[in-house]
Amino acid sequence: MIDLDNTDGVTVARLAHGKVNALDLELLDHLTATFAQLDVDSSRAVVLTGSGRAFSAGVDLWRIVDGGAAYVHAFLPALEAAFRAVFCIGKPVVAALNGHAIAGGAVLAAACDHRVMAAGTIGVTELPVGVPFPATALEILAHAYGVPQARRAVLCADTLGPAAALATGRVDELASAESLLATAVARAAELAERTPPEIFRLTKEQLQAPAVQRMSTDPRVLRLWLRATEDGRLRRYMSTLRSR
Considering its fold, how many domains does the chain have in total? Predict the structure, then answer.
């Protein structure tokens, strides 16, 4: 589900869950537990990447549709917990985007301190699906992109290739597929070597504090996700994708 490897003190965490690393309850719980452990182990830094053709294609909406209300009640807190676990780890985290980073996948990438992209597209597409973002996701996007670019990304729901993603600040640099992982590991090591670990941890915490303080849970988010599940909106959206 998440494969771990260590290169010179930098842990590479690779999502390996289905064809596109879709975010379901099991992967989210595993992601939260993995990053909690990485936060206290001997790793100097972390690289988060994917496998196959995707970094992560976002929420597994079919699991939402099939699981119904009970699944949604468990899923949304797990989604926010995973986003926060990646965002709040006190070590440098670099995203190595091997492929598509869509919706929740784009938020996971934004939760990292530095993003290197090789292929695919990146974008946050919840609004066309017909469901709202949790505040945790919105705050992470605003912290990573800046408020104007985050607002545009959310409201326009566009997906951008590597060159456009770099130009708009959704990623920090580009790399070839062959050099992606080495580049990401090098960037993570550079961040770790720049300052003592306790200084990096405190500085990161201070930078993120305003965003974290605004990550309140709005009950309307759950209510609207439940409505989209119950009124058939999500099923219709997924059926439309299948017919393309």
Answer: 1
